[in-house]
Write a structure and sequence with these properties.
By secondary structure, this protein is mainly alpha-helical. The chain has 14 helices and no strands. The chain has a domain of about 170 residues: Orthogonal Bundle (MetI-like fold). Helix 8 packs across helix 11, helix 9 packs antiparallel against helix 11 and helix 12 runs antiparallel to helix 13.
């Protein structure tokens, strides 16, 4: 018996080999993800730089107005460096970003870095609030509907869920936000119509941002929960009268988390994009309202800085989700290595 144990237990050399193999998988996985991040950053730099180069019309003329003289236009072009050679302009742009200099706003003359620093926390608060809505609504509803369907006789619940999730998921954020304002602000008077003022001012914007992603994530959670509940070991556990709470914590949530996180990166990016729309609906002083104002006033440094910031945040969110997936599900590391 002892000989069998010695023969079947891994040797120290085998354990070290397995550890090196796991470390190699992580290094390969991280290098692949970091390489993708570098590619995204380069693409963002190119897009934001060309934004001014290929904007319709003359950016300097858009700034000074149609009534300005050509001499005034040339002064602005010299100040913006638009008369410099293309490669010189590109070098000035990239070198400024390396120094943390995004230029000054044409409208307020404020450094764009300071402008973003003032408004980014507000946009982040709306996005995080929307994520909280997704977690508090999407996950519980998806799991509850799946459990109800597995018990049978839940056609009414299933039908109502399909209609509700389909309707909520199809509504754009500005329509959802407008409906929420009409119902809860103008009709009932429970919450303020203008967002961003105090805690109450963030409730409606966060709900407007998070409802559609919550409907999407609930569908994924529902499907994954139904699949898990159909496994033989779950049926065996049910036959042993294991409580639903233990099944949920011990078996359902770990299996659902991986699939939900895969979609979670897309949802988080969608939340960032949704805040741009919702901030304008609720007149919240975040990056969303600022970028609209900058577009209307041809404030190109502000437009470049905001787009670059939102793009980098989206890329970093996806990187964090990929790393978390690698921690929760080691199979992702092997898939990442095989895909390279």
């Amino acid at each position: 018996m002892s000989d069998q144990l010695v023969a079947t237990s891994p040797s120290p050399a085998g354990r070290r080999g397995a550890s090196r193999d796991a470390a190699g998988q992580w290094i390969s996985y991280l290098l692949g993800r970091l390489g993708g991040l570098v590619g995204i950053v380069i693409a963002l730099l190119v897009i934001t730089f060309l934004l001014v180069q290929f904007v319709p019309g003359d950016p300097a003329r858009n700034i000074v107005g149609v009534t300005a003289t050509q001499e005034q236009v040339e002064i602005v072009r010299d100040r913006l460096g638009l008369n410099d050679p293309f490669l010189v302009q590109a070098w000035h742009y990239v070198s400024g970003l390396v120094r943390g200099d995004l230029g000054n706003s044409f409208v307020t003359q404020q450094p764009v870095v300071d402008l973003i620093a003032q408004r980014l926390p507000i946009t982040g608060a709306v996005a995080l609030g929307g994520l909280l809505v997704v977690l508090l609504i999407g996950f519980p509803i998806g799991i509850a509907v799946a459990f109800a369907e597995r018990r049978g006789g839940a056609k009414v619940i299933s039908g109502a869920y399909n209609v509700g999730a389909g309707l909520v998921g199809a509504l754009p954020e500005y329509i959802t936000g407008t409906v929420l304002v009409i119902v809860f602000a103008l009709t009932l008077g429970w919450l303020p119509a203008k967002g961003g003022v105090g805690v109450e001012g963030f409730i409606l914007p966060c709900i407007a941002v998070g409802l559609a992603p919550a409907a999407a994530i609930s569908r994924v959670v529902r499907g994954e929960t139904r699949a898990v509940l159909g496994h033989e070991y779950i049926l065996t556990a049910r036959s042993k009268r294991i409580s639903g709470g233990r099944l949920l914590v011990g078996h359902v949530l770990p299996n659902v988390a991986t699939s939900a996180l895969t979609l979670g990166g897309i949802i988080l990016v969608a939340l960032l994009g949704g805040t741009v729309i919702v901030e304008n609906v609720f007149n919240i002083p975040g990056l969303g309202t600022q970028i609209v104002r900058s577009i209307l006033s041809s404030d190109y440094p502000a437009i470049q800085g905001i787009i670059l910031t939102l793009g980098l945040l989206a890329a970093l969110v996806n990187l964090a989700i990929d790393i978390l997936l690698g921690i929760l599900d080691p199979r992702v590391l092997q898939q990442g290595r095989l895909s390279r």
